[in-house]
Amino acid sequence: MINLLSKRGDCLKQAKFGKAKEIETKIEAYKNAHYEDVVSPVHAFVIFEKEAARNVALARLFRKSFSFGEHPLQVKPA
Fold first, then answer.
1. CA separation (Å) from 13 to 1, 5, 51?
2. Would the pTM of this model clear 0.70, i.e. be above it?
């Protein structure tokens, strides 16, 4: 699943929307077939509308106001 999400993200960054849609179909099929295995989130792909929000995330200024269960938060630029 993570591999498919990464591939879709790469397609979106490169404006290959048709290919991203094909990968989205594969993601949906995988999710439907393995739903119980994928209901606990461990990764999130976020697209920011404003550069200021991206900078806040990269500086990790949000850590005290957001948690992801017991998982430590990591932010990496695309």
1. 18, 12, 15
2. no
